[in-house]
Specification:
heterodimer; A: 385 residues; alpha/beta; D-Maltodextrin-Binding Protein, domain 2; 7-stranded mixed beta sheet; 3-stranded parallel beta sheet; 19 helices; 12 strands; 44% helix; 15% strand; globular; B: 283 residues; mainly alpha; MetI-like fold; 13 helices; 0% strand
Chain lengths: 385, 283
């Protein structure tokens, strides 16, 4: 935020002051845009008596509960948030959007913030489970900073329900050491090698969208298909491959890291994390296609700590904070303010920002897959087979 | 206050608890099981047997549960009995306390964390690595039925040890002396006196472990890698992933029925065993 507010004219300052008096912007927005916030923060850090903690603590309560995905945050940012606001971030980790939806459908979850994926918004709105966002509570949100491709699913019927968190792709991570130094390049190959020399070494997600989607891709079908014949083909493949799997789990990093698993369906950020620590693990996109996705910050309607929820989302939208997130988890952001701050080597990283021709066969998840009873039952049948 | 009202008052807390926490939820589940999946998940009340006719799709989960639960119970019994016997009969009072505490100590840590420890022990860098070191390669333990069995035995052993220990501890030692005075060999004394008198403990231990195992979810989820599936895991999936409450309810009702049948047969067997010895009854 400090980057954009270095210069503010007297006129602008007076306008902002007027808006603040009238109440059309919040005190924090006022402090941010005028730079007074930054000045106060610098002073606050050096003068113990001015630390913002007591002022915030009364406002937002002592905790905020976040429902999120595995390996998806820089934990130091949560500590910084607690330091700044006095609110402790309690993290719940989930393996699929379906699981999150089921929990919210079943009733009070205690969550304040969650991170749904593009294809879920229509249903969340239809079921009245998601809170429309009040952007005046999110001074760090700047709609114009986001690439529309990764932001549009957050709005339904012209109303904003989610602000973009990160986007990424779903491909595969392969430990090339066990394949003569070669990666693999297609979903067909993914399943073939699993039933061959990688038997007992492959992980698929505990997640209908990506696991069924990858099997569909192997046949050249759409990742989002709900066609009965195509789903039947995918099911047959999955059932055939099941005895050769190492595990069915969305938390696949431990298995890949300790060497038990050699191949997994993988989200790009996990691919980046694995590749950074273990260079022989390559992240590749299936040439038949796969998923491109965008996650959003959102607030469930049932949240009882909405002030804290807004505070956390606003905190994470701060480009200075967000850039640390990206550095930690390796998922690109659609926020140009954050992108600009990324080191050059990350901007050119083929895992984080794949070449356009690799991205073009990828599909965004379709809303229909979330509620399609056949896909849901197929996944459950596959798991209990 | 009459004796009658007092009895009712004393039973009221437990009665209310059973009504609110058991009878009503079970009734709801029973009603749901005749319903249909609502279009975006959940349940739509109806009167159809469709969910029950779909049950064969969960055959593998029932099969896994019905083999690994009795197997786990038997294995736990075989390991727990000598241990309980040793604790009750062979140790001095001072050691007894220390050893009993050692049996309880694992309960101070959550089963979740203890099962996680097994993920590492059974994973490629754990026990299989040791085997590799002595030349046995390619051993796979984690995410197999064996791993789940190990987790089950480990997790439920104390529940088996204690009831058996209690029944052996109460054992009148004079009976053993009498047996030996009358010329019985030790193994005969064990078979004719010790073992029959500890049947109540065995029965209770097996029942506790078996019933809990039938609803087990955590251990197969962690040590089975989502591949060794129990009915409990199928239920979690139906409610929390595919959001098919109607089908989930039908599976749940079936599990309860299977359990009732198994436990009834088991009780019959035990009480027939007990009928021949009046002092044996199940707790």
């Amino acid at each position: 935020m400090t980057k954009t507010i270095d210069h503010i004219s007297k006129k602008e300052f007076m306008e902002k002051l007027e808006s603040y008096r009238k109440g059309s912007i919040t005190r924090r927005h006022f402090l941010n845009v005028t730079g007074l916030g930054a000045a106060a923060a610098v002073m606050g850090a050096s003068v113990p008596g001015l630390r913002p903690q007591p002022a915030y603590a009364g406002d937002i309560g002592d905790r905020v509960v976040l429902a999120t995905w595995p390996n998806y945050h820089d934990l130091a940012n949560f500590d910084a948030f607690t330091e700044a606001t006095g609110a402790h971030v309690q993290v719940n980790v989930f393996g699929s959007n379906e699981e999150m939806l089921a929990k919210l459908q079943a009733g009070a979850t205690g969550w304040d913030v969650y991170v749904p994926t593009n294809y879920t918004f229509e249903d969340y709105v239809k079921e009245d489970l998601i809170e429309p966002l009040d952007t005046s509570m999110l001074p760090n949100y700047d709609a114009s900073a986001f690439d529309a491709r990764y932001a549009e699913a957050g709005s339904v019927n012209g109303k904003l329900y989610g602000v973009p968190k990160n986007w990424g792709s779903t491909g595969m991570a392969v430990n090339t050491k066990h394949n003569g130094g070669n990666a693999i390049s297609s979903w067909r190959e993914f399943f073939d090698i699993t039933m061959g020399k990688f038997s007992g070494r492959t992980i698929v997600h505990d997640y209908q969208l990506t696991t069924i989607g990858s099997a569909l891709n192997a046949f050249g079908y759409s990742f989002n298909s709900v066609d009965e014949k195509e789903l039947a083909d995918a099911e047959k493949l999955l059932i055939d491959v099941k005895p050769h799997l190492f595990a069915i789990t969305s938390d696949y990093q431990p298995g890949m890291r300790n060497g038990d698993a050699w191949l997994t369906i993988c989200w790009s950020g996990d691919g980046k994390q694995l590749n950074t620590d273990i260079p022989e693990i390559a992240y590749v996109l299936g040439k038949e296609g796969g998923e491109i996705w965008s996650d959003y910050w959102a607030i469930p309607k049932s949240s009882e700590r909405k002030a804290a929820a807004y505070a956390l989302i606003n905190f994470m939208l701060d480009p200075n904070v967000n850039v640390k997130e990206v550095l930690a988890h390796g998922y690109p952001t659609a926020d140009s303010r954050t992108y600009d701050q990324l080191p050059e080597e990350l901007k050119n990283d083929p895992i984080i920002f794949p070449a356009q021709e690799l991205l073009s066969p990828l599909e965004f998840g379709a809303a229909v897959t979330l509620t399609d009873p056949n896909r849901a039952e197929l996944m459950a049948r596959f798991k209990s087979a | 206050m009459t004796k009658r009202t007092r009895n009712w008052l004393l039973l009221a807390p437990a009665g209310t608890w059973f009504l609110v926490m058991l009878i009503i939820p079970l009734t709801v589940v029973f009603i749901f099981s005749f319903g249909e999946r609502a279009s975006s998940g959940g349940v739509e009340l109806a009167l159809t047997l469709e969910q029950y006719t779909n049950l064969p799709a969960r055959w593998a989960a029932f099969k896994n549960t019905m083999t690994l639960a009795p197997l786990g119970t038997m294995a736990a019994l075989l390991i727990a009995y000598p241990l309980a016997y040793f604790l009750a009969v062979k140790t001095t009072p001072r050691w007894k306390t220390i050893l009993l505490v050692l049996v309880i100590v694992p309960f101070w840590t959550s089963i979740l964390i203890r099962s996680y420890a097994w993920i590492f022990l059974l994973g490629g860098r754990g026990i299989p690595a040791l085997f590799e070191w002595v030349g046995i390669e390619g051993l796979r333990l984690i995410n197999t039925p064996f791993a789940v069995l190990v987790g089950i035995i480990y997790g439920y052993l104390p529940l088996m040890v204690f009831p058996i220990y209690v029944s052996l501890d109460k054992l009148d030692k004079r009976l053993l002396e009498a047996s030996s005075d009358l010329g019985a060999k030790p193994w005969k004394t064990f078979l004719q006196i010790t073992l029959p008198l500890s049947v109540p403990g065995i029965a209770t231990g097996c029942m506790l472990v078996f019933i809990l195992l039938m609803g087990e979810y955590l251990i197969p989820a962690l040590l089975g890698g989502g591949k060794v599936f129990f009915v409990g895991n199928a239920l979690v999936d139906l409610f929390l992933q595919s959001r098919n409450w109607a089908y989930g309810s039908a599976v749940a009702v079936t599990l309860v029925v299977v359990m009732l049948i198994t436990v009834t047969i088991y009780m019959r067997l035990i009480s027939r065993l007990g009928a021949s010895r009046e002092d044996v009854s199940i707790m």
